[in-house]
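Re: Re: token formats

Sure, here are both.
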Amino acid sequence: MGITEQILTDHATRKDGEGVTWFTAADLARLGIRDALFTVMQTVQHTLRMRRARQIVESHGCTDRWSVQDAH
């Protein structure tokens, strides 16, 4: 399973009532992803854009986390 698929699977399990899941370095470690936090964010963001997926990636100016959000 690729990084984006791992993130989306975790997102589906952990998202809140508004469809948002925050990811930190600890979350990536839990998933066995060893890449840097924002490298993973960029990879997931690019992949979702290429797929024209219904999820978006946001950091909201945070430097220690980023989120996957279901777009409505």
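Second one below.
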Amino acid sequence: MNQMTMITETTPVNIQHHTYKRECRYTRGVHIPLLDIENILNSMSEDVIAYFEFHNIAKEIKQGTFLNGYSGLATIISDYYKRKKGTEILELTNGRDFYVKII
């Protein structure tokens, strides 16, 4: 199986979390192509989309957008890449906070 690694930042990435009304700081993340994130979002149930929007309300899904990651999203992304791309993303599902950058 192919492997993809998390990106470790030397300077934290700050991403606005509108629901919590604060910025979240991340030192690790994953860069995902726009087509893949669109496919991932299109495969989500209404309940899962609602939780995604809780963490990423008012975020445009376009190249260059940074999203707040959470454990459920980590599992969904990991499963998508294993199933569709034969790729494992190392350390994504270890429970640590992360961001997603759409490329």
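Strands lie at 2-5, 7-17, 22-32, 66-68, 87-90, 99-102. The first helix runs from residue 34 to 42.
- S.
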